[in-house]
Design goal:
alpha+beta; 9 helices; elongated; disordered N terminus
C-alpha cells in the first residue's frame, strides 16, 4: 500500500522496474486528487497545444497527491490491524476471566454449603455453641476430651467465614475487571470500524478518479512513478548504508540460511498474489500480513503490524541488514518489506497491486529490524 513494486529481480542494483508502481491512481484517493484533475469530462490524454512537459507536470502533481493519500490509507490499514489484534487479546482476556469467575463461583457455592451445614448443626443443638454444649454435658471426661476438638471446630468455622469473605471480594474484583475489559473491547471495535470506513471511502474515491483517466494517461503516470522509484533507489545505493547493505559479505540473495531462508522462501512464493488490506493469507496479503506469515512459516512469531514490528523487534543498522531482515518505511512505520539481498525487498505494496520485488531504497527507510 503506497509502496513501489517490482515485477522481477533482474535489475537488483537499480530502482526495481516495478518499484514505482506504488502510486498509480487506482486506489485510496480523496477529493483533493479530483481537484488536481479538474472537473468531470476533462482529460489530459489529448492536451492539444499544451506541451508534453506541461502534461507531465500535471501528472506529477497527481502522482504526489495520490502517493500522499496512499500513505494515509496505509496508516489507516495498520491502525485497523492493530485494533484487530487488540480485539483478539481482549477477547482472550475476557474468556480467561470468565473461567476464573466460574471457578470462584463454584468455590463460593461449596463454602456456602459448608456454612449452611454448620448452621444446621448448631440449630439441632438448641442454638448452643459446641463449647457450651460440652460444658453442660455433665461428663467431665467428655468435656476435657472435647475441648481440643471444639477449638479446632471454631478455627475451622472462622476459616470458612474468612474464605467466604475473600471469595466474595474476589468475585467483586472480577466483575469490575470484566466491566473495564468490555469497555476496552468496545473501544477497539470502534477504532477498527472507523479505520475500515476510512479505507473503504478512499478506495471508492480512487475508483472515481481512475474513471477520469484514459488508458494512455494511466500508463504515462505509471512510467513517471517507476522513474521516481528508480531515482530513489539509485540515490540510496550511492549512500554508505546502501553500499553496505548490498556489497558487504553475506548480503547477497543466496546468503540467507536457516529461519531467514525459510521466511524468504515463503515470502517470495507469494509473489503475484493480490494485496488486500487487513489480509494475512493464504491467497491475499497486506504488507505486515506477509511478513507475519513469512516468519511464522519459519517458526517465529512476530507482531502483527509494521509499527509493532518496529517497536518490539531488535533493531540493526541499515548498512548491516541481511536477508530475512524487515525494512520499515516512513516516519510512522506504516509499511514493511522483507530484505532478500542484493538491494531488493519482497513486499505487498497496496490495493490494486500484487506481492512483488522492489528496490529496498525506493521508499524512505525508517530502519531495519531482525526477527531472528
Amino acid at each position: 500500500m503506497g509502496c513501489p513494486g517490482r515485477r522481477n529481480g533482474d535489475d537488483r542494483r537499480g530502482a526495481g522496474r516495478g518499484g514505482g508502481r506504488v502510486a498509480v491512481a487506482t486506489a485510496l484517493v480523496c477529493a483533493a486528487g479530483l481537484a488536481v484533475l479538474g472537473t468531470p469530462g476533462v482529460s489530459y490524454a489529448d492536451p492539444g497545444p499544451t506541451s508534453s512537459s506541461s502534461v507531465d507536470g500535471r501528472l506529477e502533481d497527481v502522482r504526489r497527491e495520490v502517493e500522499a493519500l496512499y500513505r494515509k490509507a496505509e496508516a489507516a490499514t495498520e491502525a485497523y490491524n492493530a485494533a484487530g489484534e487488540q480485539l483478539r487479546l481482549q477477547e482472550k482476556s475476557i474468556a480467561d476471566l470468565t473461567r476464573q469467575v466460574t471457578a470462584a463461583q463454584q468455590r463460593l457455592d461449596r463454602l456456602r454449603a459448608q456454612a449452611g451445614a454448620l448452621a444446621r448443626a448448631q440449630y439441632r443443638g438448641g442454638g448452643l455453641s459446641p463449647g457450651t454444649q460440652l460444658m453442660l454435658s455433665g461428663a467431665p471426661g467428655a468435656f476435657l476430651d472435647g475441648v481440643a476438638l471444639s477449638r479446632k471446630g471454631e478455627q475451622a468455622t472462622r476459616g470458612l467465614l474468612d474464605q467466604l469473605a475473600a471469595t466474595r471480594a474476589e468475585l467483586d474484583g472480577y466483575a469490575k475487571a470484566a466491566g473495564e475489559r468490555w469497555k476496552t473491547l468496545d473501544g477497539e471495535r470502534k477504532k477498527k470500524e472507523t479505520a475500515k470506513k476510512e479505507i473503504e471511502a478512499r478506495l471508492e474515491t480512487a475508483k472515481r478518479l481512475e474513471s477520469r483517466l484514459e488508458e494512455k494517461e494511466r500508463e504515462r503516470l505509471r512510467l513517471l512513478e517507476e522513474e521516481r522509484a528508480r531515482q530513489a533507489q539509485a540515490r540510496w545505493l550511492a549512500t554508505d548504508a546502501g553500499k553496505g547493505a548490498v556489497n558487504l559479505p553475506g548480503r547477497g540473495s543466496g546468503a540467507a540460511t536457516g529461519d531467514a531462508r525459510r521466511a524468504i522462501d515463503f515470502a517470495t512464493a507469494q509473489i503475484g498474489k493480490n494485496y488486500v488490506w487487513g489480509a494475512e493469507g493464504p491467497d491475499t496479503y497486506d504488507c505486515s500480513g506477509l511478513t507475519l506469515k513469512a516468519w511464522a512459516a519459519a517458526g517465529r512469531g512476530i507482531p502483527r503490524t509494521s509499527q509493532e514490528q518496529w517497536r518490539q523487534l531488535p533493531k540493526v543498522e541499515v548498512k548491516d541488514m541481511r536477508p530475512g531482515d524487515l525494512v520499515i518505511y516512513f516516519a510512522d512505520a506504516s509499511h514493511v518489506g522483507m530484505y532478500v539481498g542484493d538491494g531488493t525487498i519482497v513486499h505487498a505494496p497496496r490495493p490494486g497491486r500484487q506481492v512483488t520485488l522492489a528496490g529496498a531504497g525506493s521508499m524512505p527507510i525508517l530502519g531495519v529490524v531482525r526477527p531472528g
